[in-house]
UniProtKB/TrEMBL annotation:
Assigned keywords, A-Z: Glutamine amidotransferase, Hydrolase, Lyase, Pyridoxal phosphate
Taxonomic lineage: Bacteria, Bacillati, Actinomycetota, Actinomycetes, Streptosporangiales
Reaction catalysis annotation: L-glutamine + H2O = L-glutamate + NH4(+); aldehydo-D-ribose 5-phosphate + D-glyceraldehyde 3-phosphate + L-glutamine = pyridoxal 5'-phosphate + L-glutamate + phosphate + 3 H2O + H(+)
Pathway as given in its UniProt record: Cofactor biosynthesis; pyridoxal 5'-phosphate biosynthesis
Any one GO MF annotation of this record: pyridoxal 5'-phosphate synthase (glutamine hydrolysing) activity
Protein name (Swiss-Prot/TrEMBL): Pyridoxal 5'-phosphate synthase subunit PdxT
Active-site residues (renumbered): C79 (nucleophile), H178 (charge relay system), E180 (charge relay system)
Gene this chain is encoded by: pdxT
Length: 199
């Protein structure tokens, strides 16, 4: 069984560790660059991407993260973590840095600040038949994707219908929403299978 790290600079690290625990997969918080060598996959949690990016630079994790992504380490990003994996960010903060690796442009806070959060049923390719109860909290959406990116899920109804909220490119997986908050482990299970090379 692989060990999966959860980036623990800022954001909802504990919730991701709890989901991994529920799946019987060893998870460990990652705050130092050396720890990246001890894990076979990494989750970047939700939180605030500008702050997370600044902390990643300050703790000398940004370059090691880029290196590991470049070498093919599987990484799953939720919400702010999705932004961290994006090659380009719209409506980012001045000088906002990301790890990158996923050939996509995300729009930060796309679902609107005043709305704060909403829930919607979203089907995710590769994660079972039933829709996810997707929770969006000042979430980004994916504005556009490159050739190598597979779209796994979109908002299905309402004025945001069609907006991309789940993507995969090789070992990189990202969702706009937070499956770690709703007790539905199917996307984490998909990620664990990706880490094992079985999906
Ligand atoms: N709006 C946040 C950001 O820009 C993301 C919110 C979240 O992760 N729930 O990073």
């Amino acid at each position: 069984t692989p060990t999966i790290g959860v980036l623990a600079l800022q954001g909802d690290t504990a919730e991701h560790l709890a989901v991994l625990g529920g799946l019987g997969v060893p998870g460990t918080p990652v705050t130092r660059p050396e720890r990246l060598d001890d894990v076979q996959g990494l989750i970047i949690p939700g939180g605030e991407s500008t702050t997370m990016g600044k902390l990643a630079v300050r703790y000398e994790l940004m370059e090691p993260l880029r290196k590991h992504v470049g070498e093919g380490m599987p990484v799953y990003g939720t919400c702010a973590g999705m932004i961290m994996l994006a090659d380009q960010v719209l409506d980012g903060a001045e000088g906002q840095q990301t790890v990158g690796g996923l050939e996509m442009t995300v729009r930060r806070n796309a679902f609107g600040r005043q709305t704060e959060s909403f829930e919607a049923g979203v089907h995710i390719e590769g994660a079972g038949e039933a829709p996810f109860d997707a929770v969006f909290i000042r979430a980004p959406w994916v504005e556009s994707v490159g050739d190598q990116v597979r779209v796994l899920g979109r908002v299905e109804y309402g004025e945001r219908a069609g907006r991309i909220v789940a993507v995969r490119q090789g070992g990189l997986l990202a969702t706009s929403f937070h499956p770690e908050l709703t007790g539905d482990p199917r996307i984490h299970r998909l990620f664990v299978e990706m880490v094992k090379g079985q999906a």
